Amino acid sequence: MTAVCAIQHAPCETLGLLAEVLIQQGITVNYVRPFRRERIPRGLGNQAGLIVMGGPMGVYEQERYPYLRQELRLIEHALKEGKAVLGVCLGSQLLAAALGAKVSPGQRKEIGWHPITLARAAAKDRLWRGVEKSFLGYHWHGDVFKLPRGAVALASSELTACQAFSYGTAAYGILFHLEVNRPIIRDMTRAFKPELREAGLTAREIIGGIPRHLECLHRAGRSVFKAWAGLASEIGDRPVQAPLARSAPAGAGASISSWPPAAAAA
């Protein structure tokens, strides 16, 4: 049976819809939760993929959250081994950083329901083809990143140029949230109240969008996650996993102890 490793950074930011789809596709999820002081593995072994979820910390806060260095190293190993990689929100930022891109605070936080527009490349992408060109995404992030060298831009929003990207044939980053469900959204509004106040929003506004927008978001999410599950299953079925991703760009293989690499430094 195909198995993947999932790193969860915050109690409220679970896999949600993604977990449902993986279970339906017969994929086992092995969780690692650093907020419970669970150790980040050095490698994935026989696991076919790596999922890195969101969280309130920043890629540049590695002194405060040392496990982020270990995650960057694990992402690098997954890329080199051709594993299926999926980064969500913070996870997409970590993937971008592992590929040499700079991650930094955006001009303002992007929180709530805002339109997502797919790039032309999405129409031919394995995960995104078949998804509506424009739909309302669920957002909760303050940091942004530039498209990593060698990556393909797949989606954007009015505020954020890079909302989703692919690298090689097996690595994907999604800055917004396709995986959220009602409980996750409600829990996020409770856990991150200061961010709501900072953005001038209320929990009622965010939760009020659920009846209007969640079903459409889930249509896109099911399509994307099912395709990623298929990719992971294909990799898991291979007796010898040949690298699927391109070689990491200059800076991506730098020592994590000296992070960020020169290519990503401000």
Please give a quick description of this structure.
This protein has 266 residues and is an alpha/beta fold. It is built from seven helices and nine strands; from the N terminus they run βαββαβαβββββαααα. Helix 2 (67-80) packs across helix 3 (90-98).
Q: Helicity range of the residues?
A: 25-40%
Overall, the morphology is: globular
The CATH architecture would be 3-Layer(aba) Sandwich
**Structural domain tally:** 1
CATH superfamily grouping: Class I glutamine amidotransferase (GATase) domain
Widest β-sheet, arrangement of strands: 2-1-3-4-9-8-7-5-6
Beta-strand percentage range: 15-25%
The average pLDDT score comes to 91
What does the secondary structure layout of this molecule look like, with pairings?
Blueprint (H helix, E strand, L loop, with lengths): L2 E5 L9 H8 L3 E5 L16 E4 L14 H14 L3 E5 L1 H9 L4 E16 L15 E12 L5 E6 L7 E4 L3 E4 L7 H10 L1 H7 L3 H6 L1 H28 L29
Parallel strand pairs: 1-2, 1-3, 3-4, 4-9
Antiparallel strand pairs: 5-6, 5-7, 7-8, 8-9
Explained architecture:
There is one protein chain. With 266 residues, the chain is α/β, with parallel strands linked by helices. The protein has one domain: Rossmann fold. It is built from 7 helices and 9 strands, in the order βαββαβαβββββαααα. It has helices at 17-24, 67-80, 90-98, 182-191, 193-199, 203-208, 210-237, and strands at residues 3-7, 28-32, 49-52, 84-88, 103-118, 134-145, 151-156, 164-167, 171-174. The chain has a 9-stranded mixed beta sheet, sandwiched between helices. The longest helix is centred in the last third of the chain and has 28 residues, at 210-237. The N and C termini lie far apart (43 Å). The model is unreliable at 241-266 (pLDDT under 50).
